[in-house]
Write a structure and sequence with these properties.
By secondary structure, this protein is α/β, with parallel strands linked by helices. The protein has a single domain (3-214), classed as Rossmann fold (3-Layer(aba) Sandwich). The chain has helices at residues 3-9, 24-33, 41-48, 54-63, 76-83, 87-114, 146-155, 160-170, 173-177, 191-214; strands spanning 12-17, 37-40, 119-123, 138-143, 183-186. It starts with a helix and ends in a 32-residue tail after the last helix.
Length: 246
């Protein structure tokens, strides 16, 4: 088997994480524009909490029927105000939602890889904690300056107090995940400059992935710790990546 065929059968997997307001979704869009298939864990979380889904019923059972709207949907804004002010409540919510998201995320990754995507991006705020990171070739930690983070959240329509609450709920996320990240992606400053940094990081990641694939069938890539199939197993801390920070 040629190296090119090996690479085609083993797409580059990038785990994308970082604090709210720092640009994960923007980076994901830039990667998608360059041919990547993006699996968004937050979008899947919205799917599993739609009316009729078991996770929604479990949320209502835990937090109360006041979080169900008249049309049967989840009142995400009201629930957010509660859980982002109460770490215990947030942990309870995650314990309901994450197990429901996991099989859909695994299926989405498998479908993207079966379709021949050259790069599969897994976008998740809990990428490392949920165990997804250890199945990725690289983990990209998206950051920006605190001033830009706050400005972006307020620009989305959040009141300043709510923005501060969301930021505080994540604590020192960058510090905690820094050891697991293979690359730091700084989106501060002009958008076109940040996009160029992302494009350069992707090009470098693909070069490394191709070199790793051509070295033999036993290696998935520089940051991988898992088998060729995407199987994150039980949640646990992700790997510490050996690659230089971007």
């Amino acid at each position: 088997m040629t190296a090119d065929r090996m690479v085609a059968r083993r797409p580059l997997r990038i785990g994308l994480t970082g604090p709210i307001g720092c640009g994960k979704s923007t980076v994901a869009r830039w990667l998608a524009a360059r041919g990547a298939a993006v699996v968004d864990a937050d979008a899947l979380a919205r799917e599993v909490t739609r009316p009729g889904e078991p996770a929604l019923e479990a949320i209502v059972a835990r937090f109360g029927d006041r979080f169900r709207r008249l049309d049967g949907s989840l009142d995400r804004a009201a629930l957010g105000r509660l859980v982002f002010a109460d770490p215990g409540a947030l942990a309870d919510l995650e314990a309901i939602v994450h197990p429901a998201v996991r099989p859909r995320l695994v299926a989405a990754v498998a479908a993207a890889e079966a379709a021949g995507a050259p790069v599969v991006v897994i976008e998740a705020i809990k990428l490392v904690e949920a165990g997804y990171g250890r199945e990725c070739d690289e983990i990209w930690l998206v950051t920006c300056s605190p001033e830009e983070q706050r400005a972006r959240l307020v620009g989305r329509g959040m009141v300043a107090a709510a923005a501060e609450q969301r930021i505080a709920s994540q604590g020192d996320l960058v510090e905690r995940l820094g050891s697991a990240a293979t690359r730091l992606i700084d989106t501060s400053g002009p958008s076109d400059e940040a996009e160029r940094r992302v494009a350069a990081a992707l090009a470098d990641a693909l070069r490394r992935h191709r070199r790793s694939a051509s070295s033999g069938p036993g290696s998935r890539g520089p940051g991988s710790r898992g088998p060729a199939s995407f199987d994150p197993g039980s949640p646990r801390a992700g790997p510490s990546g050996p690659e230089p920070r971007s």
